[in-house]
Amino acid sequence: MNISQRKKEVRVTMHGGTISYEDFNDARPWWRTRIFTEIITSRDGVGDLLALLSERAPRPFFIIDEILKPQSAFAPIFARSGKYVYDASHSEPRARDVDSVTALLRNEREMPDAIVGVGGGATMDLAKAVSICLANPRPAAEYQGYGMDMERGPDIWVLPTLAGTGAEVTPIAVLRGPEKKLGINDDNVAPKVAVIDPALSAGARKFNRFFSMMDCYFHHREITRSKTSAPDAALDSRDGADIARRVLSRDLSEFDIDKAAESAVASVLGGSSSIGGRVGVNHAISYGLSNASPHLPHSVAVTISMLACGDIYSDGGFDDTVKFLEINGIARPTAREYGIFESHIPGMTKTALGMEKLWHSHFGENWRDTVDEKFISDIYKSIVSI
Ligand SMILES: [Zn+2]
Fold first, then answer.
1. pLDDT tens, 150-175?
2. What total of structural domains would you count in the chain?
3. From ligand 1's centre to the CA of 28, what distance in Å?
4. pLDDT-based confidence at 15, cuts 50/70/90?
5. Cα 292 from Cα 14, distance rounded (Å)
6. Domain that includes residue 276, residue range
7. Ligand 1: centre distance to CA 134 (Å)
């Protein structure tokens, strides 16, 4: 069977009903966008990762989330010597985290031939940033942004332990710098290989599984609404929105392997669609919130934002969000809980207004006819009033 035939069949399955863990291993490729990453679906993620590395990159360096330590599945990685155990409880890696790991590696006699991120979005982003910063002389904060013309570092491999972030595919390493949260955006930070085993998210807390899928859903919703996204990205997002909606329309209290497989599919689509696509208003507003509160997880920030954007996402994004929270018995998150108050509005408004590409994405070329300081600060006023 040739690839295009297979693609078509897989999509029919995806539109028609659920994707089971059984289907997952044979489902590749379920995306249309050309991605930089080789996706390897697996039922023994840790075993397959280590076996492949021993063939292709015999001197790997692991960056692994500390929270995985009690889980026996990850013991073979914790037992290795070339690793950095990372406390990923902050919402994004800080630029100085990148600098400390690169300093550590520069002191080694031999450079690793792969940097392997094992964890959720923050850990994968740290691995991505460490790889590229190893090959470039300045501190990580100086590379936050676009078009920096950077050298390529060691290959990046990832083993996601949480679905929804899309970080397993994207050419972005989001960092919290001394001044702002902004990614290193460079094709060379896209992972070369992602080994994806849905069973590895079994140990993740419901809070994380739920909110990372919410972010995934928002990415898809925003890209399908975007006026500047490539057609393939919009199609990947349409599939991704359907799948994420299906996952979030059920109670996620208990880990379920079939839901995990669907989440993994939606997550890769979130990454693939963001390569040619662009999110919109909801993410623009969330960046202001994130800059105002260093402990606010990105996935919660976008949820708070959506709950204030009912008029803008009146075609279902807002109603779905309310429904998903209810089904899962989760209270609507508020900015207040994360220490964001009225005094933050001017700063948040300035941050959000600077996200020109995202406003353009949602409203089109004439976005300035709709969006100004007042438009944005009114949204923040409604957010802090709750
Ligand atoms: Zn997001």
1. 999 999 999 999 999 899 999 999 99
2. 2
3. 24
4. very low
5. 39
6. 206-384
7. 26
